[in-house]
Amino acid sequence: MPVTVRFAPSPTGNIHIGNARTALFNWLFAMKNGGNFVQRFDDTDVARSKQEYADAILYDLHWLGIFQDATEYQSRRFDIYGEAVEKLKRAGQLYACYETPEELDLRRKIRRTRGLPPVYGREALQFSHAQIAEYEADGRKPHWRFLLPNFRNDPFDTERTEVGWTDLVRGEETVDLASLSDPILIREDGTFLYTLPSVADDIDMNITHVIRGDDHVTNTAVQIALFRALGAEPPAFGHHNLLTASTGEALSKRTGALSIASLRESGLEPMTVASLAVLTGTSENVVAASSMTELAKRFDLATASKSAAKFDPEDLNALNRDLLRQMPFSEARDRLSAWGILGDQAEPFWLAVRGNLDRLADATVWWRIVKQGPEAAPELSEDDTEYVRKAFDMLPPEPWDGGTFKVWIDEVKEQTGRKGKMLFAPIRLVLTGQDSGPELADLLPLLGREGIRARRP
């Protein structure tokens, strides 16, 4: 069976960089193993799920470089869940409960006072037909719980029942089912909670590996039990550490913090976001990868730490600068062309300015400076004005190349006696209107002799 993974967000908001971490872990795992990536939308929450969010999630994933082999919606698969429910009922592994939230809360408090774990005591299994009839006459609707296999013969005589698995990230993991309440699979209104549709889908879609955040570790034991109750072999599981802000604060779709959409709109490169999302919180150095292929080579689930993966959003800016500094012209060409950066000078221009960009769009600022000059004439002292005029009078004849600037500035230095910042700063300011930027040796051939003389103060 080919490796098959899935990314299964709820379409109730925009995904953030933490969600992208899970999607990327699955995508890269599939890439490395020649497998399939299923995009599944867990949209059983009809009130909050929206198609516009599902569409936005797909757009974000495609921007990052993730392309699904199949797209599924849980809201279109209720027949499959119904079949799973009937199978569990026939096996006596799904039972109706009529308690109200207030009654359940009171029972938990009583168990705590008796020194017992606050798990559900399976009282519903002892309801008589008369009690059930009375509840239903009062208008109560049942919710349905999965009977965990944590007993031998008597469900009220639970015993330690360890469910273990070799986690792809965390290594050997065990959870005692006796320490857990029987999970509710179906609400009073007949809608499904997360667990049953997820397991039924994983079975039906032949999911071989479930890779998700470590906040699901405890859920995994219940789900393994449910897989087996439905007659299926559980997939392999891997639980990676969660990506959090440097303060330790969790990211949330509802607040929109660090959403992929906002990061894209800020001008960051997709591989910047992907590199940080994947490599933070692992033993790998957080260095921007130029492509998914390169990132896949550096990706290994086993390198993820067991502690939270904290990051500073400023790390994204530093990574983006590094990525642009190494980006070949062939990769930038189409976007530069769309901004009017064309012709024979486009490539040498890119090579000259790429090391000074925070965002690729910043190249347009430098293109305007090269072609049109500074927006406003810089303010110079009388001494600096006179110095720049003399320097411009010493411009060597064309043609110019990368060595022209050194020839020129050496002559200027010898004739004026200026050194260091006093030698370079006024010239840079007049040529670019900026006190820092690309190497003047690289800009000089782009400006040309006439272009420079036109900026003479």
Overview of the molecule:
With 457 residues, the protein is α/β, with parallel strands linked by helices. The chain folds into four domains: 1-73 and 194-323, HUPs (Rossmann fold); 82-179, Alpha-Beta Complex (Glutamyl-tRNA Synthetase, domain 3); 327-372, no CATH class; 382-453, Arc Repressor Mutant, subunit A (Orthogonal Bundle), CATH 1.10.10.350. The protein is 45% helix and 12% strand. It has 18 helices and twelve strands. The chain has helices at 17-32, 51-64, 78-90, 101-113, 129-137, 195-204, 217-229, 260-265, 270-279, 292-298, 314-326, 329-338, 346-353, 363-372, 382-393, 404-416, 420-432, 440-453, and strands at 4-7, 36-41, 70-73, 94-97, 143-146, 162-167, 171-176, 184-186, 209-213, 236-240, 243-245, 309-311. The protein has a three-stranded parallel beta sheet, covered by helices on one side. It has a three-stranded antiparallel beta sheet with strand order 4-5-8. Helix 9 (270-279) crosses helix 11 (314-326). It is elongated. The mean pLDDT is 94.
What's the quick description here?
This protein has 457 residues and is of the alpha/beta class.
Please name the defining characteristics of this protein.
457 residues, alpha/beta, Rossmann fold, Glutamyl-tRNA Synthetase, domain 3, 4 domains, three-stranded antiparallel beta sheet, 18 helices, 12 strands, elongated
Mean pLDDT comes to: 94
Span of the ends, CA to CA? 73 Å
**How many strands in all?**
12
What order do the strands of the largest sheet run in, or round the barrel if closed? 1-2-3
CATH topology of the largest domain: Rossmann fold
- CATH structural class of the largest domain: Alpha Beta
Sheet with most strands: 3 strands, parallel
Q: Which ranges are low-confidence, i.e. pLDDT below 50, for 5 or more consecutive residues?
A: none
CATH superfamily grouping of the largest domain: HUPs
Could you say which overall geometry the principal axes of the C-alpha atoms support? Answer: elongated
Strand content: 5-15%
Name of the CATH architecture of the largest domain: 3-Layer(aba) Sandwich
Class based on secondary structure composition and strand pairing: alpha/beta
**What is the CA-atom radius of gyration, in angstroms?**
32 Å
* Helical content class: 40-55%
How many structural units, i.e. domains?
4
How many individual helices?
18
Order of helices and strands: EHEHEHEHHEEEEHEHEEHHHEHHHHHHHH
